[in-house]
């Protein structure tokens, strides 16, 4: 077990002042500022019988996520018509937590550390969804997509997410508390009915899983006919992670489309407009796809939006897409970057880390997180 208990005091020291200075709408948070609400939420969590039944590691993960769940409000809160609102505070807080856990707490570059960190980040990002999930037309699909991330980190589950949400509701003073608790209970029941409460649904094949999680109208227990002809490997990771080395060691026989190599050949700076580089790379990809030639796409691909457009392109040609995310310890990353022919400014890498979202299980047929 990795002891996460020191994180709470570090988090108080790092985020506490900003949280105490961030007010909330008295209509939803009669208790006052974000820090007061967070402390009440942590106490409510520790009193839950289901929390007490968890193993020590999961208790620590859930407590860390609970303390950090509203840190995004410190930078997103604004007054609209005299009332405090914090739009998109959950995904913002998730990215803030990842950056802090990575750089300040050292939760990076090792498989177990990545799984712990990302469980915390997923819980923070999705903590607003369960009370409202049951009202969505795509509620079942959303739950399955979230639950599939247990393939990436077994420390995340819909059950744990619902525990955080329940504590979140109990840690506030508002008129709709019981209504929201009932909604969370319904979400939990729906996940149980869909067989994805404690882990992702056991699809018969990855092809069926991919079809279902893209929203296709398929029976999730059916072994679908696989029309794919071969694999396109998409790399993902910060500069200096060692993507080129990993390709040489693991996929030496496949052609590689490298955006770094294209930039060098076109004499385009990494900080300049990348439109021409991207267009040439996509045309090269289409040539391989038309010939049904497996290849590697080598770029940072640090956001879901970047990855989605490429996966859509590759799958349009019936390729099997495998996303490989690579990560290394922060000090090693900076050292590797210094040894690059074209060193990326550390400021740029830090900005990329602040935007980074790891690929999720629903983004492609195969998704891997590897530490190198």
Structural key phrases:
globular, alpha/beta, 7 strands, 52% helix, 5-stranded parallel beta sheet, 372 residues, two-stranded antiparallel ribbon
How would you describe what is shown here?
With 372 residues, this protein is of the alpha/beta class. 52% of the residues lie in helices and 9% in strands. It has 18 helices and 7 strands. The strands form 2 sheets. A 5-stranded parallel sheet has the order 4-5-3-6-7, sandwiched between helices. A hairpin with a 2-residue loop joins strand 1 and strand 2. The longest helix has 17 residues. The two termini are 22 Å apart.
Give me the secondary-structure topology.
Elements: H1 6-20, H2 34-47, H3 49-52, H4 56-68, H5 73-76, E1 78-80, E2 83-85, H6 89-103, H7 111-125, H8 130-133, H9 139-147, H10 158-170, H11 177-193, H12 206-213, E3 231-236, H13 243-250, E4 256-258, H14 259-266, H15 275-290, E5 295-298, H16 304-316, E6 320-327, H17 330-338, H18 346-355, E7 366-371
Parallel strand pairs: 3-5, 3-6, 4-5, 6-7
Antiparallel strand pairs: 1-2
Helix pairs in contact: 1-4, 2-4, 2-10, 4-7, 4-10, 6-7, 10-11, 14-15
């Amino acid at each position: 077990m990795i002891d996460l208990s020191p994180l709470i005091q570090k988090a108080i020291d790092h985020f506490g002042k900003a949280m105490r200075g961030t007010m909330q709408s008295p209509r939803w948070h009669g208790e006052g500022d974000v820090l007061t609400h967070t402390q009440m939420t942590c106490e409510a969590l520790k009193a839950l019988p289901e929390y007490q039944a968890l193993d020590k590691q999961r208790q620590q993960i859930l407590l860390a996520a609970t303390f950090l769940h509203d840190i995004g409000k410190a930078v997103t809160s604004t007054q609209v018509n005299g009332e405090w609102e914090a739009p998109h505070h959950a995904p913002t807080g998730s990215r803030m937590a990842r950056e802090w856990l990575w750089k300040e707490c050292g939760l990076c570059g090792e498989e177990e550390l990545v799984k712990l960190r990302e469980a915390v980040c997923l819980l923070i990002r999705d903590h607003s969804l369960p009370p409202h999930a049951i009202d969505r037309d795509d509620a079942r699909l959303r739950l399955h997509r979230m639950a599939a991330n247990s393939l990436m980190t077994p420390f995340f589950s819909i059950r744990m997410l619902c525990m955080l949400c329940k504590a979140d509701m109990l840690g506030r003073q508002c008129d709709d508390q019981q209504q929201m608790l009932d909604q969370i209970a319904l979400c939990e029941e729906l996940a149980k009915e869909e067989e994805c409460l404690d882990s992702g649904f056991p699809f018969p094949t990855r092809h069926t899983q991919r079809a279902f999680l893209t929203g296709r109208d398929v029976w999730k227990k059916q072994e679908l006919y696989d029309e794919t002809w071969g694999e396109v490997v998409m790399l993902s990771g910060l500069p200096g992670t060692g993507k080129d080395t990993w390709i040489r060691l693991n996929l030496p026989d496949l052609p590689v489309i490298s955006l770094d190599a294209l930039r060098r050949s076109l004499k385009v700076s990494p900080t300049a407009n990348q439109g021409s580089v991207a267009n040439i790379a996509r045309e090269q990809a289409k040539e391989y796809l038309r010939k049904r030639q497996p290849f590697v796409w080598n770029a940072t691909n640090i956001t879901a939006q970047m990855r989605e457009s490429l996966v859509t392109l590759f799958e349009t040609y019936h390729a099997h897409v495998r996303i490989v995310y690579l990560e290394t310890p922060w000090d090693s990353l900076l050292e590797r970057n210094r040894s690059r022919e074209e060193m990326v400014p550390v400021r740029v890498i830090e900005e990329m880390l602040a935007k980074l979202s790891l690929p999720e299980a629903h983004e492609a047929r195969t998704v891997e997180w590897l530490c190198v």
